[in-house]
Amino acid sequence: MVIANATRPHPIFLAGRWVESPDPLDVVNPADPGTLAGRTYHATPEQYEEAVEAAVAAFETTRHMPAYERGAILRAISTGIRERREELGRRIALEAGKPIRDALVEVDRATLTFRLGAEEAERIYGETIPLDLLPSSKGRMGITRRFPVGPVAAISPFNFPLNLAAHKIAPAIAAGCPVVLKPPSKDPLTMLTVGEIIEQAGAPAGSVSIVPMTRALGDRMVADERFKLLTFTGSPAVGWAMKAKAGKKRVVLELGGNAGVVVDRSADLDWAVKRILVGAFSYAGQVCISVQRLFVHADVMDAFLERLIAGARALKVGDPLDPATDLGPMVDEQAARRTQAWVDEAVAMGGRVLLGGKAQGTFFPPTILVDTPVEAKVCSSEAFAPLVVVFPFSDFDAAVRGVNQSFYGLQAGVFTNDLTNTWHAFSELEVGGVIVNDIPTYRIDHMPYGGVKDSGLGREGLRWSIEDMTELRIMVLAQPG
Asked: What is the sign of the dihedral through the CA atoms of 377, 382, 388 and 394?
């Protein structure tokens, strides 16, 4: 196997120092599985223990750090990421297979995420509460303040190796909590590179560790009582199993979805198609809020499908490092084979493939299906692939019920120019976010983000993550007399 830009394996960022281990980790290039994107190491159990002990010790420093120091560290990390934008974008493209245009957008978002973390660190407010609501409580006033909960265990996924990890590290630093991050084994080199930036930014030793580890060691981290919060982004099956093992610690889960989109007859079809092409096929659909189920009004169904098929056919599938590429590979051949099996199942159940549907190695083309039973996996489960299933509807409320007919509830999109339908969707859709006249794949990093049902527990977005990473405490002041 060939190593791209061959260098020695990247060391692990362990409690402020760089270490190696006897357990090497090869990182495969998804666009060319015969080539390695690089190498690093799995941490040993002893190194894991060192990271946790260092985080516990560092909490005595981080919990007393003033806001201006936490803000300065986060701003320095943001600046460092911006200065190494091209390097980090190329790294994401090589090890994650993400098209370079999308990879650079991810870097820009991470720059924003750490900057927002700095701003939120400087405005973690409390409040005063009058308590004299009864004669017995005369002369008393309450003052609230948020205090960091303690060390944080963080596990981030492969599909956004930089920005989804940033949504765990940035709020932890902002809140004053040490954090041990388990980056994804498929693409850990991006965050190890960011570890260099974190070190240069002056984060206290032990306050941040970036430690690739085996699944078994990750399970140990989940159950470790020294962590006071577990934050995980990944699949629902893994996430809910982690919650069961997490003990008494707080748990925040950002899990999967099979996002639905409603296209009403009042919608701007050209705009809807333009955005759905992005939402369905960007990063080969490997996004938890990727468009998967489309409910299109029967009056505009034919015109919509004509535009959607033409747009999807024009997308360029190819090398992630080519700036013209729209669609790169899936993360590995197993993911492509699974997608093929699900499409074949849908066809066997009566579904029709209007475009695509055939894997080529790690690549899967944009795929559009119709006439598919809702029991098929491409409808009922999270495809995490570049495919959409299209259903007609004639009644808007029926379309909303169709979106809700899912175990998941992360975000939904509604394309409509009917205000009544807008409010109805907001009221009735069982999701964490309703995106009107845009795709459910839309997210900006300061908004609350998370789901209901099997899609998760809690919310991310800097302000909301910080709330989970802090404990509210009240002090009651009594005036004697």
From this structure: positive
